């Protein structure tokens, strides 16, 4: 089974430029997440999709970040304009949220390789 | 919101040694996962363990949900075990993961 795919793997831009990241989740996973991981910290959620609808974007800096998942599969995360503090690894994850008979909810998340963004 | 604390923050081992990593969380959780982040930044799933005990080779994990902690055991450590180990949880507030700050493990030969 193919894992979560992301591209590009690395990106270097200057501040005030724009950049876009792409994610293809595991086939059949309805839930897709974008996380931001700053050096030395754990990942933090930016936005969560269920199919093509937004579930949680409370941590997304909406003045400069946007994300979409138009057909409920692939997703794109955009930053415009970028700031120095946006330098981080951007991780995409997907999960098959559901119920396991007799065992309650199930939500194991799988991560892609990430995109390392450097803003100069 | 829920707080996740991992200890120790750093751990240095000789190859072959055993270790225990701890994850404490401040509220009841629906799900808990342990990850290994390798030097290339990839998060590798180790365990999905909201409760109980699981083993996979040299690794095992135990979550005691009623006491709000989880432990990750690494036995006979190898240099390839080096990297950052993260504990992450979800609770009733949603399904997105909340991560601890990680434990950085360095195993030398």
Write structural notes for this entry.
The complex is a heterodimer of chains A (120) and B (109). Chain A has 120 residues and is mainly β. In chain A, strand 4 and strand 5 form a beta hairpin. Chain A is built from no helices and 13 strands. The mean pLDDT of chain A is 92. Chain B is 0% helix and 57% strand. Chain B is built from no helices and eleven strands. In chain B, the strands form two sheets. In chain B, strands 2, 4, 5, 9, 10 and 11 form a six-stranded mixed beta sheet that branches. Classes of the chains: A mainly beta (120), B mainly beta (109). The A-B interface holds A 31, 33, 35, 37, 41-45, 48, 55-56, 89, 91, 93, 95, 97, 104-111, 113-114, 116 and B 4, 30-31, 33, 35, 40-43, 45, 48, 50, 86, 88, 90, 94-97, 99-102.
List keywords for this structure.
heterodimer; A: 120 residues; mainly beta; 7-stranded mixed sheet; 4-stranded antiparallel sheet; globular; B: 109 residues; 6-stranded mixed sheet; 5-stranded antiparallel sheet
Shape of chain A: globular
- Radius of gyration of chain A, rounded? 15 Å
Percent of residues in β-strands of chain B: over 45%
Number of strands of chain B: 11
Helix-strand pattern of chain B, N to C?
Answer: EEEEEEEEEEE
């Amino acid at each position: 089974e193919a894992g979560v795919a992301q591209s590009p793997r690395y990106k270097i831009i200057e501040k005030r430029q724009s950049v876009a990241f792409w994610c293809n989740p595991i086939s059949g996973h309805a839930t897709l997440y974008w996380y931001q991981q700053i050096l030395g910290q754990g990942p933090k959620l930016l936005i969560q999709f269920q199919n093509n609808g937004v579930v949680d974007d409370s941590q997304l800096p909406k003045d400069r970040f946007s994300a979409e998942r138009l057909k409920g599969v692939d997703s794109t995360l955009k930053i415009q304009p970028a700031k120095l503090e946006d330098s981080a690894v951007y991780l995409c994850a997907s999960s098959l949220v559901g119920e396991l008979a007799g065992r309650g909810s199930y939500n194991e998340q799988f991560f892609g390789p990430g995109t390392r963004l450097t803003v100069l | 919101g829920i707080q996740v604390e991992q200890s120790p923050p750093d751990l240095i081992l000789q190859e072959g040694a055993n270790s225990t990593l701890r994850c404490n969380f401040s509220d009841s959780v629906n799900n808990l996962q342990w990850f290994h982040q390798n030097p290339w930044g990839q998060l590798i799933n180790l365990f999905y363990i909201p409760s109980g005990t699981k083993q996979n080779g040299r690794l095992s994990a135990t979550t005691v949900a009623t006491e709000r902690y989880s432990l990750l055991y690494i036995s006979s450590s190898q240099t390839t075990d080096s990297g950052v180990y993260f504990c992450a949880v979800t609770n009733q507030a949603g399904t997105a993961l909340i991560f601890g700050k990680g434990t950085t493990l360095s195993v030398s030969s």
